[in-house]
Amino acid sequence: MDETLPAEHTRSVLLRGLWRDAIDGWGAPGGLDQLPAARRLLAAGADRDDLVRLVRAGAYEAVFATLDTLDQGGPVHDPDAVGGWVVMETDAEGSPTGQAIPGLHEDLLTSDPGGRDGADLWL
Fold first, then answer.
1. Nearest to 104 by CA among 68, 52, 53, 62
2. For residues 5 and 37, what is the distance between their CA atoms, to the nearest angstrom?
3. Per residue, what are the HEC states of the chain?
4. Tens digits of residue pLDDT in 81-92
5. How far apart are alpha carbons 94 and 96 in whole angstroms?
6. CA 88: distance to chain centroid?
7. CA–CA gap between residue 103 and residue 120 (Å, rounded)
8. How many other β-carbons are positioned within 10 Å of the β-carbon of residue 30?
9. pLDDT tens column, 10-42
10. pTM given for the model
11. What is the b/e burial string over 98-112, where b = at least 16 CB atoms within 10 angstroms of the residue's CB?
12. How far is CA 33 from CA 9, 20, 26, 39, 92, in A?
């Protein structure tokens, strides 16, 4: 069996989950309304779709930056830091398989479950 297949599946599940929960979740009913600033902007006449797009774009940028930092594997901007990190697949019991999952930030945009490659974020 090709050992990259489970890691590719894990990568896909992770990236789709980030889109669903961290990015697209803001468009769900009540998602935007949990933010006091958004409630104030809506009360002042802001367009709900524009606000959802803004928050989703900000969430996308935050997720991308986080994945990029994880993919770097170490503290690039901290010369005094010791050690690093790796994103690794686990088995069904949660034990590491030894299979690293690199380059997550590279696949975030194309993992948009809406099939839009994030194009709707920049309208």
1. 68
2. 43
3. CCCHHHHHHHHHHHHHHHHHHHHHHHHCCCCHHHCHHHHHHHHCCCCHHHHHHHHHHHHHHHHHHHHHHHHHCCCCCCCCCCCCCCCEEECCCCCEEEEECCCHHHHCHHHCCCCCCCHHHHC
4. 888 899 999 988
5. 6
6. 16
7. 23
8. 7
9. 999 999 999 999 999 999 999 999 999 999 999
10. 0.87
11. eeebeebbeebbebb
12. 34, 18, 9, 6, 36
Specify the length of the chain in residues: 123
Place of tokens 């594997």: 73
HSE of 53 in the Cβ direction (CA atoms, 13 Å)?
11
User: In the structure encoding, which two tokens stand for residue 34, read together?
Assistant: 């949990």
| 110: its two tokens | 């194309």
